[in-house]
Amino acid sequence: MGAMVKANLEAEGFAVAWETSGEGGLAAHGRESADLVVLDLNLPGMGGFEVLATLRRRADKVPVIILTARSGGEDRVRGLSSGADDYVTKPFAMLELVARIQAILRRSEPEAPFQRTARSGPYRIDYLHFTVFRGRTDLGLGLKEFRLLEVLVAHPGRVHSRADLVNLAWEADARPTLRTVDRHIHALRKKLGDSDENPAIQTLEREGYRWTLPVKR
Fold it and tell me: What would the mean pLDDT of 41-60 be, rounded to a whole number?
């Protein structure tokens, strides 16, 4: 789960330090202060609640999102009253987690610029409204198609295997087949008006897909 969250957040452009224990997380944060902490509760050694209490006892105001399988109301109340900024339970949608992270970062750093759009070739990508335009035309992408496009555009030129796209574009509890990825890519290319001669999304047999156009953010 930690590896999946790390990969998804890196695909969104975040720099991520992943630690598998409470003590390790506090030490990493001490070496280089994080802008935000995603905190599990069921950690070996020092548990998540103790990590949170330690941060707040030190007057550390780093935003904290608790990400846990413990969905009980008592745990949620305890987490939020102890100083957590948000509480997300598993299973969860990565898009929701990313949106919550971005919302908290915007609140905690109001002067920080938030990337609303990007341009790539003839396409304008609106991250705020999950839409893609070609000229003035909204291409009508579904949420999954937009998510696949978002992952590919985040690293133009990088080959993403079908398994990578499953991990990055689908929710943690989803189990789509690799052929499902192909079908969604086919639908995405059709809506983009992508050509086989000069494709924006290039297919590499047995390897996966990559975005070929330069991106201006």
Answer: 92
Tell me the C-alpha to C-alpha distance, in Å, between residue 190 and each of 141, 169, 177, 194, 199.
Answer: 10, 19, 20, 6, 11
Q: Over 50: is that where the pLDDT of 112 sits?
A: no
Does residue 189 have a pLDDT over 90? Answer: yes
pTM, 2 dp: 0.53
Residue range 72-84: mean pLDDT, rounded: 90
Pick among 1.10.10.10, 1.10.10.1760, 1.20.82.10, 3.90.1150.10: CATH of 117-211? 1.10.10.10
Question: What CATH topology corresponds to 2-108?
Answer: Rossmann fold (3.40.50)
The Cα 167–Cα 154 span in angstroms is: 15
State the Cα–Cα distance between residues 158 and 49, nearest whole angstrom: 39
Q: What integer is the mean pLDDT of 74-89?
A: 91
